Amino acid sequence: MEILFWILLGLIIYTYIGYGVIIGIIVKLFGLSKKSNLDLKAYPPVTLFVAAYNEKDFVDIKIKNSFELDYPKDKLTHLWITDGSDDGTPDILRKYDGVKVYHEDKRSGKTAAIHRGLQFVESSIVIFCDGNTILSKDTVKAVVKAFEDPKVGCVAGEKRIIEKNSESASGSGEGAYWKYESILKKLDSALYSAVGGVGELFAVRKELFETVENDTILDDFVITLKIAMKGYKIKYVPEATASETPSDNVKEELKRKIRISAGGYQSIGRLPSLLNPFKHGVLSFQFWSRKVLRWVGVPLAMILILPLNIYLAYSNNFQLDNIFTIFLILQSIFYFFVLLGRLLTNVNISFKAIFLPYYIFMMNYAAIMGGIRYFKGSQSVNWERAKRAKMS
């Protein structure tokens, strides 16, 4: 029982802290991290591809942002696929000169929209982004610069959450999570490759694009990793940023996280060879450490470790100088802050760290529920967009 406790604790610590520390040391010792600049050798044609569903509230803001990107206008194509949208999104887009809009009334999911839209792409470099994200001015330049390395097959941009001075549980947790993710992605990329892209902002070489099943939940993740499995790298480029507001509340964030977790289980099943370190080496090690353990290992470990800890502390008469009693106290403090975070869910607080335990708990709860939903086959490929706070 004691051995099992230490294994579970080690798994949790490794996943959330240990992996980052280990690769951080490796990157530092071997000087793998390199500073980048945005001086381009050439300005190749680029397509900014947006697969949007009912984004009328963001279209004008998004188009204004897209037109202000620092890249030659004659080299940048704006392409939107609006399949299934019935809120007037296509009509708003058609008012803008220089925007190619392709629409079908039938809604078949984002993956199908991407597949259909690629036939209209003429450039080698395709940048995918969401209709509700704001890109940094140098995004296209930063992406193109990364592709000057022929070993790079994909580029992953940095997702940022637009935060206020004080936030509720959803905004505080999501903001902290993506700052942490950004650090790990930088280290992943410096070590070998980022582990997948996110739909808010990623880019691929069109000739390397491989179609995936239309019922793929995490299309961005699977598309980019399939390219990485061919021997190309996913370069993380923090200069290319996509900013969006946090989920409007915890309920909306939980809905999003459950869907992602269900997609995580699906992705593991559809990328089985990536689990084999003898075939994919460092990429496999990164996949296990960054995704498999987080989606599957840690949630199960957190379910088991609390009752196991209670049993071991009880076996030692809850003595205060006993290591298992000490860990039980620490777990109790953690869950106290989980409960406090739950009680203060909709209260805006400037000391945002108070919500971190609650957000961590929520992520693991979502992973469990996502796994259940996946195995029940009840997760739809059609994305029900989480409500997000309004941009100020």
CATH class of the domain at 34-246: Alpha Beta
Give the ordered list of helices and strands: HEHEHEHEEHEHEHEHHHH
Number of strands: 8
Rg calc: 22 Å
Helical residue percent band: 40-55%
Please tag this protein with its features.
11 helices, Spore Coat Polysaccharide Biosynthesis Protein SpsA, Chain A, 13% strand, 8-stranded mixed sheet, 49% helix, globular, alpha/beta, 8 strands
Describe this entry's structure for a reader:
The protein is α/β, with parallel strands linked by helices. The protein has a domain at 34-246: Alpha-Beta Complex (Spore Coat Polysaccharide Biosynthesis Protein SpsA, Chain A). 49% of the residues lie in helices and 13% in strands. The protein has eleven helices and eight strands. The protein has helices at residues 2-29, 59-67, 89-93, 110-117, 139-146, 169-191, 219-228, 250-270, 277-315, 323-343, 356-376, and strands at residues 46-51, 76-81, 99-102, 125-129, 134-135, 152-161, 201-205, 233-244. It has an eight-stranded mixed sheet with strand order 3-2-1-4-7-6-8-5. Strand 1 (46-51), helix 2 (59-67) and strand 2 form a beta-alpha-beta unit. Helix 9 crosses helix 10. It is globular, with a radius of gyration of 22 Å. The chain starts with a helix and ends in a 16-residue tail after the last helix. The model has no long low-confidence stretch (mean pLDDT 90).
